[in-house]
Design goal:
The structure holds 2 protein chains of 2 kinds.
Chain A (H helix, E strand, L loop, with lengths): L7 H9 L7 H27 L14 H25 L9 H23 L24 H34 L2 H11 L6 H34 L11 H27 L8 H32 L2 H12 L3 H13 L7 H4 L2 H28 L14 H24 L5 H22 L1
Helix pairs in contact in A: 1-15, 2-14, 3-4, 3-7, 3-8, 3-13, 4-5, 4-14, 5-6, 5-7, 7-8, 8-9, 8-13, 10-11, 10-13, 11-13
Chain B lengths: L4 E7 L2 H13 L6 E3 L5 H7 L6 H26 L12 H27 L20 E7 L1 H14 L3 E6 L13
Antiparallel strand pairs in B: 1-3, 1-4, 2-3
Classes of the chains: A mainly alpha, B alpha+beta.
Chain lengths: ~450, ~180
Amino acid sequence: MAAPELGYDEVNRWVLQTLAPPGRRYWVSVATLGAVVVAGITAWTYQIYTGLGVTGLRQPNMWATYITNFVFWVGIAHSGTLISAILLLFRTRWRTPVYRAAETMTVFAVMTAGLFPLIHLGRSWFFYWLLPYPNERWLQPNFRSPLVWDALAVSTYFIVSWVFLLMGLIPDIAAARDAAAGWRRTFYRACALGWQGSDDQWRHFSAAYLLLAGLATPLVISVHSVVSWDFAMAQLPGWHSTIFAPYFVAGAIFSGCALVLTLLIPLRRLMGLEAAITPWHLDNLAKVILLMSLVVSYAYLTEALIAWYSGNPFERTTFAMRYWGPYGWLAWLMVFCNCIAPLPLFSPRARRSMVVLFVISIVINIGMWTERFVIIAGSLATNFMPSQWAFYKPTWVEITITAASFAWFLMWFTLFSKFLPIVSMTEVKEGIPWQRQAIAQARREAA
Amino acid sequence: MNGALLVTGFFTDEAGCARGVAALRSAGFGKPYVFAPFASEAILAALGGARSPVRLWVLLGGLVGCASGFALAIGLSAEYPHVTAGMPIVSIPPFVIIAFELTILCSALSGLLGFLVHGRFPRFDPLPGYSQLFSNDRFGVVIDCTAGESERADALLSGAGAVEVTTSVSSRTQGDDTSEEE
């Protein structure tokens, strides 16, 4: 037990000081991220004007970087809901100061993910054809298609995540309202909806929040399973496998938890939240990452074993080409980043070292992005017909849009963290009585 | 709350606040308002009261969502069929996914609506006795009473561990602010 003893007023003070007017360095960061986003918008505009031919997408690789980004960002989103909703149901103590940042990551990651089907459409203005609406073309969506399931699943996840985040924010915004002045007070007053923390309000809030957490839990499992079925429902070797749903969900939690670490470690330093987000909290998050790394490693082995054991020549060839073909270096990079690099997390010293955690978290996300690319573009490159085989390379348009998506995500996260409480004051305070008991118990045992 | 005075006890911890509530209720006072910086099971237990009806909103929303999902998928598939290689037009396994997602979506939105309705949000007037300390590090127990009862209420709250007890004039009747009946 390493968390320091906090008082209720200290929690408010520490979190509310993060909402102080930002300095020049903050606005320079936001402007830099904004500039990268503008570059991405420019590239997208060029693509719309000229056509999808400006990308590297050619037969048979008609899904590549954009879909990789889509799956990557949807995966990132899942960890936020795991930490905020699923761990709430388990009454996990270490989640309280970190879950708000994780849930914020979720909503902005889903926003980022949602851009990519639009970008990938080429003629993005036709996106609404996926939705059931009255029309004169005698056509409605094919509900047997995974793409339609995807549209509904990701939209549902987007809406439910926002509802969950905003509902949880209300009591904290009320605290910010009571401490603020000027335009900020007006802004927080409007957002707080008149919350005053009365017993009735807490009664309804607790019921609604717990039920939302219970609803978000199956959503986490289902949404990324549905996304994985975009691939598993096809016949393509390397895609058509029943392992895909748990494989993708495990990978999603793995990459998302890693990105939570990537965000939290600089956040706690830059915003003076070291006392609220302690090495103990990050240690527990690192344990989850280590567990998911082992699951993902097992999934890689299982996939390869089943491909060989099946005797199916197409499946065997696809896996041989995955690890020893032109994309082989990417596959081994994936194995290193996801299976080998997280192994130091077995050491408690490594799990409490900010530098080690930060580096490993970035390596994991490189590995998980690579994994999606290897699965998507790698499998398409080596389909049933060797005469069709071709190996995809991204163009500057796709690289720029990919970089812009990261900047877009970071820009929204940065803006949020300075204007709304990035640590949940109410839940940290809820944990204080337990914390005091735990410290007293530890002292009694030590004495 | 229709008394002439509001007696407010300020507590530094949830246990003291719960004691204050229990003391008032066992002394025959009506149901007090309690303000807290976080949800406390001890305080809600001391207050008693019915469970939140928000759960019924969630259930209803889920049932509507599930029925709508199946109705949408089956209805549109039957009316506008995609004829593909003899596969069934109305195919329940993939439609389960549509129904499941709509169940979750409608449950969540319905739960949010229930929370807003039962919490009477948005609210633009402060509840009687509210102090900005209650969003920081204080718990508040507010009881509406007559002038003759205020000293007794003061003594009960102080005895329960209140660090401060204030008495103020109740400025208006609280018809629509009354807590839900047990």
